[in-house]
Amino acid sequence: MRILLFVLLLPLSLQAQQNFDTVKIRPFPLTDNVYMLTGSGGNIGLLVGPEGNLIVDDQYAPLSVKIRQAVYAINPGEVRYVINTHLHGDHTGGNENFRKLGATLVAHDNVRARMMKETVNREGKTVPPRNPESWPVVTFERRLNVHLNGEDLELHYLDRGHTDGDVIVKFKKANVIHTGDAFVRERYPFIDLTSGGSFLGYIHTLQQIYDLADDQTKIIPGHGALATRSDVKALHDKLADIRDQVIAALSKGTKPEELASLPIATKYDPEFGKGFVKGKDFVLLVADEVKVMAPVRKKK
Ligand SMILES: [Zn+2]
Question: Which CATH architecture has domain 2-228?
Answer without folding.
Answer: 4-Layer Sandwich (3.60)
